[in-house]
Amino acid sequence: MYRRHSETVILILAMVGAFLLMWILNGTHFVQIDNFQSMAFQLPELGLLSLAMMVTMLTGGINLSIIASANLSGIITAMILTYYMNPEAGGGVSWGVIVLAICAGLLVSALIGLLNGFLVATVDISPILATLGTMILVNGLAIVLTKGYVISGLPDPVRFVGNGLVLGIPMPMIVFIACAALMALILNRTPTGVNIHMLGSNPTACFFAGVNNPAVLIKTYLLSGVYAGIAAIVMISRFNSAKADYGESYLLMTVLASVLGGTSASGGFGRVSGLVIALIILQMVSSGLNLIGVSNFLTIAIWGMIIILVMVVNYLTDQYQRRRQTT
Predict the structure, then answer these.
(1) CATH of the domain at 285
(2) Burial class of residue 187 in the structure, from the number of CB atoms within 10 Å of its CB (0-12 exposed, 13-18 middle, 19+ buried)
(3) Most buried residue among 25, 71, 122, 209 by CB atoms closer than 10 A?
(4) What is the distance between the alpha carbons of residues 95 and 79, in angstroms, rounded to a whole number?
């Protein structure tokens, strides 16, 4: 419990430090309402994908196919919407088609999650190889369906999900907050969440405690797939289009956000609150670097450096705590 509180305090201090640093570097440009609103539009996409990554990391696994799943889900949704509804033709809004398209996209991402879960839990393939294979397969399917082109022209109600405001709050942020709260509820207040943590901490002990480990893994990757599908809805609505290669740079960022937020790379420990704070830190730093004209390629290199640094710090902290326990 002490460790959890100390890590939360460190994350909050890091968030405050990042805010002050970006404020100093950018002056009043950083603290303008428009900039905060822009960050609130950008964060949810990465946030939803990070939740999809985090839940698999809690079991000691990983899901490299979340971006590919989101893209294919978004493509299926956009194809249905543009086939049955054409905003340029002046036709009315068909809510039935919108619901059908969204459900079809979520179903696709859920099926990909089930495939990952089956490969990891039943076929006993390592998560990194199973999800890597799924990622390549799904990317190929997405390119075949779109032939490399962009599918654009979504109806207004769908675009509102990614670009609308409710009482001044961006709609994507409302979606993210609801999904983050739901994930926290699942992980902290349900038997499935307890089993996910137990499985990541000690699979053998979890098995002898009467837990069906394969079933837990399948549920975990299914949940990850569904969250990737929700991220797809936000992505295509923001861009008013779907494509096979959207969000490719997000994969590194989801791992970084999870690790920075306190999720153990070996599984068993991690909190949604820590992930949310980490996302805020990363978004502030990204926005601040963009305002001072730092290259996006250099920013990606900085994220990689941060991942290595966080892993080294976590290792040294674990070693220090073990030495204290043995003395």
Answers:
(1) 1.10.3470
(2) buried
(3) 71
(4) 16
The boundaries of the domain holding residue 97 are 2-26+38-321
User: Does residue 326 lie in a domain region?
Assistant: no
Whole-angstrom CA distances from 53 to 34, 64, 205, 227, 278 are 30, 8, 24, 9, 14
Q: How far is CA 324 from the centre of its chain?
A: 35
Contact present, 269 and 257 (Cβ < 8 Å): no
pTM (two decimals): 0.89
Residue 1: per-residue pLDDT: 46
Q: Work out the burial of residue 269: count CB atoms within 10 Å of its CB; fewer than 13 is exposed, 13-18 middle, 19 or more buried.
A: middle
Give, as one character, the DSSP assignment of residue 151: E
Task: Judge whether 31 lies within some domain.
Answer: no
- pLDDT at position 306: 78
User: Whole-angstrom Cα distance, residue 262 to residue 266?
Assistant: 11
Q: Per the structure block, which two tokens stand in for 258?
A: 């999870």
Dump strand ranges (E) for 27-153.
151-152
How far apart (Å, rounded) are the C-alpha atoms in residues 318 and 314? 6
Whether residue 198 lies inside any domain: the answer is yes
Q: Averaged in consecutive runs of 10 residues, what is the pLDDT profile of the chain (327 residues)?
A: 54 68 67 78 92 95 95 95 69 80 96 96 94 96 91 89 89 95 95 93 89 94 96 94 88 89 85 90 81 76 78 76 74
Contact 228, 73 (CB under 8 A): yes
Would you say 45 and 162 are in contact if contact means Cβ atoms under 8 Å apart? Answer: no
How many domains, in total, are found in the chain? 1
Please spell the DSSP secondary structure of 237-266, one letter per residue. Answer: HHHTEE-TTTTTTHHHHHHHHHHHTT--TT
What gap in Å lies between CA 14 and CA 5, rounded to an integer?
A: 14
Which residues, in sequence order, are CB contacts of 135 under 8 Å at separation 6+? 64, 65, 67, 68
Lookup result for tokens 């001044």: 168
